[in-house]
Amino acid sequence: MNSEAELEVVDAELVDDRLPAIPEDRTPAVLLTDEDPDAWLSSEAQEDVQAGIPKETAKAYEGDMDRFAAWCATVGRRPLPAAPQTVTEYLSYLKRTPRPRTGRPYGPKTMDRIIASIRSSHRAAGFQPPDTMGARKVVAGYREALSLAQDPAAQPRKASPADRTVLRIALDELDRTTLAGKRDAALMLLGHALASRGSELVPLNWPGSFTELPDGGLQVRVYRKKRKLWQTPDIPLDPEPDLCAVRAVRALVAVLADNGHAEGALFLRMDRWGYLAPPMQRAGKPIGDPDGRMTIEAASDIVQRSIQRTGLPGNWSSHSSRRGFVKSARAAGVDIVQIGRHGGWDDKSKALIGYVDEEDSQGENNPLAQIGKAAVKRQNPES
Q1: Do residue 112 and residue 193 come from a single domain?
Q2: How far apart are CA 85 and CA 134, in angstroms?
Q3: Which of 13, 53, 91, 359 could form a disulfide with 135 if both were Cys (CB 3.0 to 4.6 A apart)?
């Protein structure tokens, strides 16, 4: 899965703190570069600013702006500084133009991001961002038309939750006697246990990211990318051995050591013949992590393939493990605060509240189901 697709598919992964900070109807509080001699940054400061932008977001924004500039070149318009009408025309073009890869136009969520990319690029170049009211109206009308047509593109495509039930079915399809099977099982189970994004799971090292616990469990030092903080959740032994993340990690570590990888990256890439950390080249030049660490996209592909193999319907990715943790925890009656703190969510996280609301609207947690149960109990207090 490429970064553009992932940003469009997993709306919880969108980084909203990079959206334009200046309201559309307000002039910037400071003069622009060509008006203010102090409006400049040293190369060091520019690097520091760049370091604060998630790589996936920066890559998506860069791609958005490259495509906008290419379109401007074909129609004879100026990309920087762009006129408001140019941005509106571009969004209208995107709304009507199928993409070669999918055969469909961009969805409204991605078009919102493209508008943010254009405004962000203007600010970075020292230009006042163009008024995008017209462009946003194009997107609003497009979203409503899709909604009225009951087109799935009107809604963000969220990752389906891979809870314990889904994991049990998927793991039954894996050959866990092989190195690949052990790796894939550990990746899915640890992702669920940590409620981790793929971007948080892939960087883990053995033994550096792990601490042995007295009860046989593991404490994992994981970097929560969106909140930009380290966390050390405890992962206890699971009463179901086949669903135990700790046992799965230990099984993977043992087979990695047998293959000459006793320490370092926990999740390594493999080629079709089962060789670990094979060197990769493009145009004769080395590519990929030199230690053989797999990519975030590869981790997502493993989850997707493993669950799709079962025939279960859904939109599966590495984020499914994170959502699945919420579903499993709510089914066990865990409080939302405990869920959030274990999984690295902020206490006021709208994404987590959205996940919990979805789970609480289904099955026995559905408010109407609970109302019905209460009514029956009042009518039959003895039952």
Answers
A1: no
A2: 8
A3: 91
Do residues 118 and 240 share a domain?
no
Give a three-class secondary structure readout of 189-240.
Answer: HHHHHHCCCHHHHCCCEECCCEEECCCCCEEECEEECCCCEEECCEECCCCC
For residue 381, tell me if it sits in a domain. Answer: no
Task: Count helices and strands (H / E) in the chain.
Answer: 15, 9
CATH code, domain with 110? 1.10.150.130
The reported pLDDT for the residue numbered 53 is 65
Cis previous bond, 129, omega within 30: no
pLDDT in tens, 124-133: 777 889 999 9
- R_g of the chain, CA atoms, integer Å: 24
Q: Using the 3D structure, point to which of 154, 181, 204 is the last residue of a domain.
A: 154
Domain span including residue 82? 3-154
What pTM does this model have?
A: 0.68
- Residue 373 falls within a domain, yes or no? no
For residues 27-55, give the mean pLDDT: 63
Q: How many CB atoms lie within 10 A of CB 130?
A: 22
pLDDT at residue 271 tops 90? no
- Phi-psi map region of 81: left, alpha, beta (phi>0 left; psi -120 to 50 alpha): beta
Cβ pair 302, 323 in contact under 8 A? no
Q: Is 54 helix (H, G, I), strand (E, B) or coil?
A: coil
91 half-sphere exposure, CB direction, 13 A CA radius? 30
48/96 same-domain check: yes
pLDDT at 148: 85
pLDDT in tens, 102-114: 888 988 888 999 9
